[in-house]
Specification:
Elements (H helix, E strand, L loop, with lengths): L1 E13 L2 H32 L5 H14 L1 H4 L3 H24 L16 E4 L4 E3 L2 E4 L3 E5 L8 E10 L2 E13 L10 E6 L5 E5 L4 E5 L4 H4 L1 H13 L5 H35 L2 E5 L3 H6 L3 H10 L1 H14 L3 E5 L24 E3 L6 E3 H17 L17
Parallel strand pairs: 8-11, 11-12
Antiparallel strand pairs: 1-5, 1-7, 2-6, 3-4, 4-5, 6-7, 8-9, 9-10, 13-14
Helix pairs in contact: 1-4, 2-4, 6-7, 7-10
Length: 392
Amino acid sequence: MLMKILKGFKYRLRPNRKQREFFAQFSGCARYVYNRGLERRQEVYEKEKKTLRYFDQNKELTAWRYEIDWLKSCHSQVLQQSLKDLNSAFDHFFRRLKKGGEPGFPRFKRKGDGDSFRFPQGFKLDESRVYLPKIGWVRFRKSREIEGEIKQVTITREGDCWSVSFSVEIERAIPEVIPTLERSVGIDLGCSVFAKLAIGESNLSGEIGHPKYLKSLLAKIKRYNHILSKKVYKSRNYFKFRKKLAKLHRHIRDARADFLHKVSTKLTQNHDQFFVENLHVKEMLEAGHTALRRAIADSGWRKFLDFLKYKAVELGKHFKELSPYFPSTQLCSCCGRRKKLSLNERVYTCDHCGLSLDRDLNAAINLKAAGASVVNACGATWCSAEAGISRL
């Protein structure tokens, strides 16, 4: 089966001094157009009670470029993409408002916070160099080959480093994988251990250790924050040390992403079917005490599930997320009786059948059992007393 896949390839840029100045200038122009466009939308709505659209603001952009000389130095399509981003932000705002969720009104951008700009066309690629209109050829560290047709190129700043992202469209033949219980795995994510696995028909126990990158460098982060608080605000030393702190945070983020990529790749290579819980991580971060929230944030659960899902889909394998309200932790994986556990109880002991099992492994077995029963509605092929599928 042929499938079109949208994918991104990100690389670290190696610009010279002049190119860094161009990057800062282009991102500043894009930020100015975004903020001015947002300001215009607010003004028009307050006076006329109507919303400006992208095409209306695109006409205004032409006038802005005649008014402001330094806007002419930036590529016109970069500025248009900035207005498209603003239009998308309002589309998402109205969509959330219609659904009754938290609207999240678009906010003004500030310098140094997510600086980026985008080229929809006009770019070229030559081995480890990329041509950007009005900037020229820029070298990057090509760690892997780029697949598919490049649709757009985005330049982003991360601390004092610049990166390039290629958004590509790949047409790929997806193999048809017939799932079997033997190559299925139930995954329960945790904080002390990153994940507990229930593997195959016999529910073999597997475990993925938690590297805890944030916790290992937390003392250093606190010390850096304390030193930064003593600097004169917006002084040269303040910005110099803020870059140092940002570099430390980037190191933690990159190390965590590397770990999640390696774990998700290994799982998709060894298994054909994955059953996990659809966690509401945002709600979990808002509840609980500080140490628990920090441990959840350090785990990167949502990113891991996203990685596992897209890698499984690309290989034609099956990925199933179960409802977060499914009581995988409370159910006995042997007899199906339900029992409430506190967060401190790490061993599940059933009062009815006497089963004593690690809490997370018990949850992983239940997730695999429930997911298998959903995939095969009748449950005949998958039915197993040990997995407890018959009761679900």
